Amino acid sequence: MVVVSGSLHYMERWRQNYRIKNRLIANLIAEFYATTILRFIGTGVIAQLVLSRGTANAPVQVNLGWGFAISLSVYSAWSTSGGHVNPAVTAALFILGKISFVHSLLYVVAQMFGAALGAGLSYIVYYEAINNFDGGVRALDGVNGTGFIFASFPASYLSNGGAFIDQVAGTGLLGLFVAFFCEQRNQIPLYLQPALFGVVAAMIGTCYSMNMGSPVNPASDFGPRILAVFLGYGTEMLTYHDYFFWIPLLAPVIGAVLGAYSYVFFIGFHIPDLADSRAADSSINGKNTLKATYECGVPLRQNEI
């Protein structure tokens, strides 16, 4: 608590007066805000690549930029909502028992709106640059196309089936590492986990982004995609490539769940219990009673909601 000359600092007074007591609402606001940060940074990364015709950013910089964006946005909400910022991550944490089904759905809604807002704010920043690039005529692709700034699209050689496999594979890796990081018996320090999520995102981008840009985040793709429809890009954002849009919306969720399950079945189930007094082998009547005060991806004080 901050005290200035015997009285509370005005920021602390505001906190006491205006702090949201309902944890679910606070967590949803945190997810919305953190996903806004993620997409604001990420959209800027892609905008610099597209609008400079590849001179301001290189693919390595794009992957690093997104990795940093994910780490920092997750950190921003880590102590409240758990910093999911991605429906695929939320789905993986749901099947791992870290969040309820209803709360998962609400998280996804917050993430979608946050991603749309983040992309919209970046559009405002780059509005004049986009006009200079395309002459004020919005186009999804082509020489002056800028639709890729707001959503992913497949390479010309890629079928929708290939795109589906691409997204399942990419988010399979993400779900695998979500399960790995959140397994308490691995004893990965909580303060390192957001940074590691960014490393994973950058890694996925460096190995599986050639086909369609490696979206691996339904909110980050779909929210800005819908926004772009109203920014002048039209319904082609949805109809392009035989209604491709549903693939980065659905496939990442399936991939993340499969990836999380693969880790649990092949490794997670077989990790020995911790041996010290705080560990998972403490039991009553044969039932594991370990309960951390805070866990990876788990909303703070979820039991109070």
TrEMBL record:
InterPro entries per UniProt: Aquaporin-like, MIP, MIP/Aquaporin
Ligase among keywords: no
Domain of life according to the entry: Eukaryota
GO molecular function, one term: glycerol channel activity
Membrane topology of the entry: Multi-pass membrane protein
GO cellular component terms, A-Z: basolateral plasma membrane
Keywords: Membrane, Transmembrane, Transmembrane helix, Transport
Cellular localisation: Membrane
UniProt xrefs under Pfam families: MIP (PF00230)
Transmembrane segments: 24-51, 105-127, 164-182, 194-211, 243-269
PANTHER family: AQUAPORIN OR AQUAGLYCEROPORIN RELATED (PTHR43829), AQUAPORIN-9 (PTHR43829:SF9)
Family membership: Belongs to the MIP/aquaporin (TC 1.A.8) family.
Function summary: Aquaglyceroporin that may modulate the water content and osmolytes during anhydrobiosis.
Protein's recorded name: Aquaporin-3
